[in-house]
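Severity: low
Component: inverse-folding endpoint
Summary: output formatting inconsistent between runs
Steps to reproduce: submit the following structure tokens with default settings.
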């Protein structure tokens, strides 16, 4: 059972973060007035596992070319994958194209504002659905990413790391702190992410610059070492199947004709790994073709 002091400490966290965010929020395109729900959806998918600095120029190019879901839906999946270029994890481009088609066909080209309707779109997960509902439409729903989880783990639970993701528990923890006022809720959702990304970072957190340092349970406990289960770490890129997939995708993006099988063979010396990577791309729908006809992006 929480003590009265602990309840007050938790209650003081959201307004501190909201006030801090009002002054310290970075000027990012998707935070500017008038940015469309479609733009928010595209940005959220691009930001998954890709740094902000790499996303911004690609986002601007994407929205200039396809300013609405209908515009993207009318183009081919191949063009979406080609325009994705070096953002990584190109399945996201296919998912975004499929979502655009569904929005065009089911919602008259308007990005839905309801979490359940967003979740029903192909390739849209719980985080993206909640982010669009909260940031594009101002709905009072908790939004939790890796940065938010770290802030909550430290400030609320006194743990140095968040550990493996637990979607239901993480959302419940954020919901407990979420202000009832829609504008404050939106600012708190965004502010907690911003705090985790710029101040309460994974390594060497800048506690002297933190607006909730005096409320932080981890700091009050003397920064104890984390002893819980570790979050899974991403495998090394160099020499991985991801690198081989990337080499094949680059060849497909840069060719208007099917890429011959013998050209694919020259991209990577390990036959088993190369064939496994190619089979994965074919299975994911990112490539089509055969050894006889060559390989290309999906039409």
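Observed output (run 2 of 3):
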């Amino acid at each position: 059972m929480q003590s009265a002091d602990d309840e007050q400490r938790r209650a003081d966290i959201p307004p501190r973060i909201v006030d801090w965010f009002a002054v310290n929020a970075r000027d990012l395109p998707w935070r500017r007035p008038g940015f469309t729900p479609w733009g928010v959806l595209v940005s959220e998918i691009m930001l998954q596992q890709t740094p902000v600095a790499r996303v911004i120029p690609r986002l601007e190019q994407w929205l200039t070319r396809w300013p609405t879901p209908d515009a993207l839906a009318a183009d081919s999946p191949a063009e979406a994958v080609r325009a994705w270029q070096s953002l990584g994890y190109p399945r996201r481009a296919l998912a975004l194209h499929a979502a655009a088609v569904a929005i065009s066909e089911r919602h008259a080209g308007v990005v839905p504002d309801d979490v359940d309707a967003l979740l029903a779109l192909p390739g849209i997960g719980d985080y993206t659905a909640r982010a669009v509902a909260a940031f594009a439409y101002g709905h009072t729903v908790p939004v939790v990413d890796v940065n938010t989880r770290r802030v909550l783990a430290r400030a609320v639970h006194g743990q140095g790391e968040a550990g493996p993701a637990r979607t239901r528990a993480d959302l419940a923890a954020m919901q407990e702190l979420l202000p009832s006022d829609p504008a404050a809720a939106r600012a708190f959702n965004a502010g907690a992410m911003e705090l985790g990304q710029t101040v309460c970072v994974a390594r060497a957190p800048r506690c002297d610059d933190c607006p909730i340092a005096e409320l932080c349970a981890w700091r009050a406990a003397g920064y104890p070492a984390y002893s819980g289960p570790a979050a899974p770490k991403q495998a090394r890129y160099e020499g991985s199947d991801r690198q081989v997939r990337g080499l094949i995708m680059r060849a497909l993006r840069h060719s208007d004709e099917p890429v011959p099988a013998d050209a694919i063979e020259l991209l990577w010396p390990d036959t088993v790994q190369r064939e496994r990577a190619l089979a994965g791309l074919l299975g994911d729908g990112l490539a089509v073709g055969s050894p006889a006809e060559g390989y290309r992006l999906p039409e």
